[in-house]
Write a structure and sequence with these properties.
Elements: H1 7-11, H2 14-20, E1 25-29, E2 34-36, E3 44-48, E4 52-59, E5 63-70, E6 90-95, E7 97-103, H3 104-113, H4 115-141, H5 144-159, H6 168-175, H7 179-188
Antiparallel strand pairs: 1-7, 2-6, 3-7, 4-5, 4-6
Helix pairs in contact: 5-7, 6-7
Amino acid sequence: MSRPENSILAALPRKAYLSLLPGLAPVSLVFGDVLYEPGTTIPDVYFPGRSVVSLLTLVDGHEALEVGLVGHEGMVGIPLALGIEVSPVRALVQGAGSAMQMSARRFRKAFDANPPLRLGLHRYAHELMAQITQTAACNRFHMVDARLARWLLMTRDRLHSGEFRLTHEFLAHMLGVRRVGVTEAASGL
């Protein structure tokens, strides 16, 4: 058995991890896929390995702003670990790659029966809240170049690579700015 790519799964004691295996399925997440929408029931959780998922809040029903980023360090579907079945955000695959998927039904059972998983996910939920708080502060107080640099570094850390393909328009949506603002900020980096 090889070590899981996802840090939460890798940190579990062997027995706790093995108890999850029957419910975990390896999947390849595809760039641009929406895993769930705000206001909808979360059907599955994902433990990214070499994939990255953006958590987006919708403004005025159509404009999206990234409020969180989940990679190998976390789990997509964290509201389920808090007893909430409906998502407040859109989960959008922004970096294609591997993940482990588990149905929400199986996850709830595994979560209740696996204290090390509960502890790991409670700690991760705290870290995700801290990330969302920092993102909100950066969006309010930092200039576009600093926000862009932070976003690129966070993505690089999660993909374990300095190379990834993104358009200025995509970055503009993630940062909540106009495309020309990303172009100007990128030229300064």
